[in-house]
Amino acid sequence: MYCEKYQVGECHSCQWLEFSVEQQLQLKQENLSALLPSLSASVFHPAVASPQQGFRNKAKMVVSGSVEKPIFGIINSSGQPVSLTECPLYTSGFLAVFDVLKPFIARAGLTPYNIERQRGELKYLLLTQSQHTGQFMLRFVLRSEKKVEQLKNALPWLQQQLPQLVVVTANIQPVHMAILEGEQEIFFTAQQTLREEFNQVPLFIRPKSFFQTNPIVAAKLYQTAREWVRALNITSLWDLFCGVGGFGLHCAETHTKLTGIEISAPAIASATQSASELGLQNVEFQALDSTKFATNKGDIPQLVLVNPPRRGIGESLCEYLSTMQPDYILYSSCNAQTMAKDIERLAGYQVVKVQLFDMFPHTAHYEVLTLLMRDG
């Protein structure tokens, strides 16, 4: 993939652009194999590749420059603002939105936040697109509520220009630190979720809930999990760290008892909405800490599905699973290093399948799906 910003040294977010697609996948596969040295080559399935551009569904733009000439992108290591509105990772639909947002910033009087002076109101633009509908969710991250009324009054013009903006909010982040969002979310639209669909499973994205940024590879990841689980013929499963329910909803059959646990209440609301639309009756989603939920439960399902953040599932949950011994554990990880440590802690299990998904092309990061089966 050619990127002008990379070539001139303005942006190095994609650290691996010098490598070919084949080289990137080979390096990632070698890294994964090195982290799991005791496994036979036969358990590794072929890596799932990603499109090299136009795959990303979310833009996180630092807003700099002036109210008349805002710059959407990053502040690079030299402290200079770099525009990324034409970044080849995004679909063409993003550029059309950014082109209208530039004059809108002036219309709404949203002065970009100046880090050095600690002045201004608009810190970030967070833009997410549904590959299923083509519609967008736009979030303005502001320093305070000072400009909220101005923003609200200017929105009709923006919505007339961009009818594809179906969810629009302001997030208030008052802290002078590189924190992407704050606790307070103000909705300007009646619609509060962005509808997505993978493999005929509806999923609903809310402003603060985690969602995969590469929908093409994410759909393949969920479909693979569905196929692996279907072959096990199970009737009960837990989906821990479930987010908006992507894994559990893909893996649950009409007869399956599914319990999904996630600390984020908005994500649980999305998962519940999806289950209702699918007509799944034997499903329960709860907003709880996954480790605390699991370790306080007496009954054990046949399968425990985990999709933790980068830190992994941790010692306590590994110890609990090793003691309670569900028949199967399906582990999806965005950090194979912590996953490998967790697998070492899981006593009484053998790895039967591992597959790498290139969720983050042009970087060293990747997603991996691993199926573990109880010994004996």
Automatic annotation (TrEMBL):
Pfam families: tRNA_U5-meth_tr (PF05958). It is an enzyme of class 2 (transferase). [4Fe-4S] cluster binds at residues 3, 11, 14, 87. It comes from the Bacteria. One of its GO terms (biological process) is rRNA base methylation. Its EC number is 2.1.1.189. It catalyses: uridine(747) in 23S rRNA + S-adenosyl-L-methionine = 5-methyluridine(747) in 23S rRNA + S-adenosyl-L-homocysteine + H(+). S-adenosyl-L-methionine binds at residues 212, 241, 262, 307. InterPro entries: 23SrRNA_MeTrfase_RlmC (IPR011825), MeTrfase_TrmA_AS (IPR030390), MeTrfase_TrmA_CS (IPR030391), SAM-dependent_MTases_sf (IPR029063), U5_MeTrfase_fam (IPR010280). The keyword Iron applies. Signal peptide: none annotated. GO terms for molecular function: 4 iron, 4 sulfur cluster binding; iron ion binding; rRNA (uridine-C5-)-methyltransferase activity. The active site is at residue 334. PANTHER family: RNA M5U METHYLTRANSFERASE (PTHR11061), TRNA (URACIL(54)-C(5))-METHYLTRANSFERASE (PTHR11061:SF30). HAMAP family: 23SrRNA_methyltr_RlmC. Belongs to the class I-like SAM-binding methyltransferase superfamily. RNA M5U methyltransferase family. RlmC subfamily. Catalyzes the formation of 5-methyl-uridine at position 747 (m5U747) in 23S rRNA. This is 23S rRNA (uracil(747)-C(5))-methyltransferase RlmC. It comes from Providencia stuartii.
